[in-house]
């Protein structure tokens, strides 16, 4: 077994309940951990035997471009897409999405949601 971690992916997107979040947008940070079998890739040194984390990044980016009201929705949509794209390759995963400087009426660095499967 192995654990792939992609950390600190940064996207500018339009997720949020309030109109200003939907029109102005915000910075988001995304981290993902994916448990997968690395045995074949470790022996073959061939990308075809690995879970391609560049492809994971691209798929996350595509989903981040779609506007949503809730981070929970974005996170579950991303995991649905990854599990569909990498059938039987992902044993478990944990995805964290952080909204930077959320409009909550005070100085707040970020608010985050973590979804695991």
Description of the molecule:
The longest helix has 15 residues. This protein has a four-stranded antiparallel sheet with strand order 1-2-3-4, covered by helices on one side. It has one domain: GTP Cyclohydrolase I, domain 2, CATH 3.30.1130.10. The two termini are 16 Å apart. The protein is built from four helices and four strands; from the N terminus they run βαβαααββ. Helix 3 packs antiparallel against helix 4. The radius of gyration is 16 Å and the shape is elongated. By secondary structure, it is α+β, with helices and mostly antiparallel strands.
Provide a quick synopsis of the model.
The protein is of the alpha+beta class and 117 residues long. Helices cover 32% and strands 33% of the residues. A four-stranded antiparallel β-sheet has the order 1-2-3-4, covered by helices on one side.
